[in-house]
Structure formats: structure tokens, C-alpha cells
Amino acid sequence: MSIFKRVGNIIRSNKQQEPVRQANPIEESRVGDIVNVDLEEYVVTGKVIYFDRGFEPHRYAYYLQSGKDVRCLLIEKGRSYECFLCDFMEGALDDPNDVPSRLELDGEDTFELEHHRSDVTRTEGNTDFRSGDEVMIWRYFGPDDRYFFLQWQDGKFVAMQGERTPATQVKFMRATL
């Protein structure tokens, strides 16, 4: 064996190998994947990624379909993941300046405004929003650990009501191509 081969082998053996990047299914799932939430399976038909310009995404909305039912799995990223399984609601508002700080639904439940913010979206598949546009989001909390989300983008409101779901009960399965 020549001296050059020995030196080459020594150099190769001393190189630092890059760590293998672990896939995060909550953030990296795509349209067509399967999601199991509370023992019910859904197909991901759309995905909205919310972020501030120049920063990592901090909220994900997965549009889920099971038969004729279309629901939304909203995941907010903080120190841990907060997951909300929501149903879409009908209603009407014309102006984001008219959004109240207290909501009454059906005269029974009252929801209080928890926080409000603006984000930029990136979308995949069938969603209610466009990529690259700003969206305004209002998050309300109500009785029995229920939440109400109101989103506005370019003249269109989307309302959802849901409950907090532990992140441990949300399982993503990759679609095989």
C-alpha cells in the first residue's frame, strides 16, 4: 500500500460525519399522507404553513378528510406542540376591524379573545388561503377546553371551533409513492 493511500484513509477516518437529521412528521407531512387523531384516520387534502417573514414556521393547519367530513387539525409550535381538531363553521363578517373580543355562539357559549396576530402563509393542496399572502388570526378560548379560531385573508373569513387534542394522540403516516 502506498503512503498516499494510507494518508488518504487516515484523513477519511478522521472526518466528522454529519448527524442524520430526524424527520418531524408534524411539520413535514404532505398532502396525501394519513393522520390518525383520537383513533380516527383522515387523509391530508391541504396544508397551510404560517410564519413571520425571516423566521421558522410556528403554526400548521392540515385540512383533513374522512369520507364527506372535512376538518382542520391546527398545530401551534411553542415549547411543545398544541394541537386542536376543529370543525369549520358558517358565519359572516365583512371587515376585520369588526371582529369582537367576545363571541357568543348560539346564545349558549361565550368565547373570550386570547390573542390576535398576523402571519404569512405557504399552502399546499386544497385550502382556503393563498400562498405568500398575509393572514390575520384570532384565537378565542371558551368553556370545557374548547377554542374558536377566526382567520381572515383578503376579504374572506374562515371560522373554526375545536377542542385541544394531546399531541401524543396525533400520528402521521407517510404516503408511499
Helical segment tally? Answer: 2
Instruction: Report strand order across the widest sheet.
Output: 2-3-4-5-10-9-8-7
> What's the β-strand tally?
11
| Gap between N and C termini | 46 Å
General shape: elongated
Which percent band covers the strand fraction? over 45%
- Rg of Cα set: 22 Å
Brief account:
By secondary structure, the chain is mostly beta strands. It has helices at 3-14, 25-28; strands at 34-37, 40-51, 59-66, 69-77, 81-89, 102-105, 109-125, 134-141, 146-153, 156-165, 170-173.
Please render the helix and strand layout as text.
Elements: H1 3-14, H2 25-28, E1 34-37, E2 40-51, E3 59-66, E4 69-77, E5 81-89, E6 102-105, E7 109-125, E8 134-141, E9 146-153, E10 156-165, E11 170-173
Antiparallel strand pairs: 1-2, 1-11, 2-3, 2-7, 3-4, 4-5, 5-10, 6-7, 7-8, 8-9, 9-10
Which features characterize this protein?
single chain; 177 residues; mainly beta; eight-stranded antiparallel beta barrel; 2 helices; 11 strands; 9% helix
What does this structure look like?
The protein is elongated and about 85 Å long. The protein starts with a helix and ends with a strand. The chain contains two helices and eleven strands. The protein has an eight-stranded antiparallel barrel. Helices cover 9% and strands 53% of the residues. The chain has helices at 3-14, 25-28; strands at residues 34-37, 40-51, 59-66, 69-77, 81-89, 102-105, 109-125, 134-141, 146-153, 156-165, 170-173.
